[in-house]
């Protein structure tokens, strides 16, 4: 697969988001198990929401990495998956974000 393509950007962006979520989840679980942080049950909704948001925002670093390499199509793919993920995040958590019951 060509590195400077829209599809590679979408794949790289999705991988970064899901790996970021996994790493942050493991980090929070580790901090809970060592007593460094209070337990929040089996990952509270608020914590999960925050971890997903940080994971989506981690694509900013990925965008900067590919910007320095002047791969505009890859950047475009990362931006597409980031905006799509943010839109899905808002739809999924809109009730807790806008206090809708």
The total domain count is 1
Helix content: over 70%
In the predicted model, the low-confidence regions spanning at least 5 consecutive residues are none
Strand content: under 5%
Total count of strands:
0
Q: Let me know the largest β-sheet.
A: none
Global outline: flat
**SSE ordering:** HHHH
Radius of gyration: 16 Å
Cα distance spanning the termini:
46 Å
- SS-derived structural category: mainly alpha
Please, how many helices?
Answer: 4
Averaged pLDDT:
89
Helices and strands, with pairings:
Layout: H1 6-33, H2 45-57, H3 59-68, H4 72-97
Structure explained in plain terms:
With 101 residues, the chain is mostly helical. It is flat. It has one domain. Helix 1 packs across helix 4 and helix 2 runs antiparallel to helix 4. It has helices at 6-33, 45-57, 59-68, 72-97. The protein contains four helices and no strands.
Provide tags for this entry.
single chain; 101 residues; mainly alpha; 4 helices; flat
Summarize the structure.
The chain is mainly alpha-helical and 101 residues long. Helix content is 76%, strand content 0%.
